[in-house]
Every structure is written in structure tokens, then in C-alpha cells.
Design goal:
With about 70 residues, this protein is mainly α. It contains three helices and no strands. It has a domain of about 40 residues.
């Protein structure tokens, strides 16, 4: 089975982008959120927010599990 990047349905706060990235890279979702905030604060905030919005639009939502 190949890995695919999907926005998370279970681990979302806003759009599930950080949750999906955490699942893809096999990291804790809280750690991924802290990394995202740290990078946003250490670099320019606006480009990272634009990245988040673009990722929100482009990355598909995972399909819910039935059962």
C-alpha cells in the first residue's frame, strides 16, 4: 500500500492539514502543530499562512472508514 497525503478527519483543528502531515510523516500531531507554529514565528508568518490555505485547498480529505 502506498502512502498518500490526505487531510485528517480525526486529527483536525482547522482544516486537518497538520494532522494529515503528521500521519504522512508518522509524527505526533501536537509535535507537527508546534513545528508549524515555530516555523511561522521564526520566518515570515504570511507566506506560511498562504501555504496552509493552499494546502487546505489542494490536499484531498481522507475518506471516512465505514464499519
Amino acid at each position: 500500500m502506498t502512502k498518500s497525503l490526505r487531510r485528517s478527519l480525526d486529527r483536525r483543528m482547522i482544516a486537518g492539514v497538520c494532522g494529515g502531515l503528521a500521519e504522512y510523516f508518522d509524527l505526533d500531531v501536537s509535535l507537527m502543530r508546534l513545528i508549524f507554529v515555530a516555523v511561522a514565528l521564526l520566518t515570515a508568518l504570511i507566506p506560511l499562512l498562504i501555504f496552509y490555505i493552499v494546502a487546505w485547498i489542494i490536499i484531498p480529505v481522507e475518506t471516512p472508514e465505514k464499519g
